[in-house]
Amino acid sequence: MNSSRLSVVSEAKKFATDIFRNKVSESITYHNLLHTEDVIAACNKMADYYQLNDEDRAVLFTAGWLHDIGFIKGRPEGHEEEGANIAVWFLASQSESPEFTSQVRQAILATKIPQSPANLVEEILCDADLFHLGTDAFKQKSKLLRQEMGNITGEQFSKKEWKKRNTKFLEDHKYFTSYAKEKLQPVQNENLQQLKKPKSKEDEEKSIRLENQKKNS
């Protein structure tokens, strides 16, 4: 990537890192700096796979760093729009072109569920954002998201309810890029089958006991 494009990505990284470290609540346990870094790592894999040119890489990585900064508001509703608006302001401060700014803005907005990518860069960002659905990290990331949702809403989701939500989400989700369809979709399908697998009576009783203990503690 040429120096001017490296510069805007580097500044976006610094800007996003400062927001997540200093302005986003610690109650946001999933949509945080670690998640953003995971998204960037996934973007990097797919950018190399598709041999993206410098301009497309700059759009992808800038949008990747900025796509969840809308959580500065502390809630999931409308965070893509909020993040896109902050990104527009930030890129204006960097004297970026209207065209580049528009591409970054659209890439961020494309990640809103249901995702709506219109080109390869947006497809890569959308797949990177939900990369974990097709990996062994799914269970761990799901726990963090469950905790975050509980922190935001004040509602403690039971394991049964959370399992139901996850099952529906995985049933509805499909990756966009050929890379993700080949490498991630099969693992996502396995994760879905694990969710659908009925628990033994013993496991079910143990789960109920643990849920009751949490409620009474």
Summarize the structure.
The protein has helices spanning 3-22, 33-49, 54-66, 79-93, 98-110, 120-129, 138-153, 159-172, 178-183, 185-196, 201-216.
Explain what this protein looks like in three dimensions.
The protein has a single domain, classed as Hypothetical protein af1432. The chain has 217 residues and is mostly helical. The longest helix has 20 residues, at 3-22. It starts with a helix and ends with a helix. 33% of the residues are buried. 70% of the residues lie in helices and 0% in strands. Helix 1 packs parallel to helix 3, helix 2 (33-49) runs antiparallel to helix 3 (54-66) and helix 5 (98-110) crosses helix 6.
- β-strand percent reads under 5%
Number of strands: 0
CATH class value: Mainly Alpha
CATH topology: Hypothetical protein af1432
Radius of gyration from the alpha-carbon trace, in angstroms: 19 Å
Shape: globular
- Percent range of helical residues: over 70%
Q: Give the uncertain stretches in residue-range form.
A: none
SSE order: HHHHHHHHHHH
Largest sheet: none
Query: What count of helical segments does DSSP give?
Result: 11
CATH architecture term: Orthogonal Bundle
Number of domains: 1
Class based on secondary structure composition and strand pairing: mainly alpha
Average pLDDT reading = 93
CATH superfamily grouping: Hypothetical protein af1432
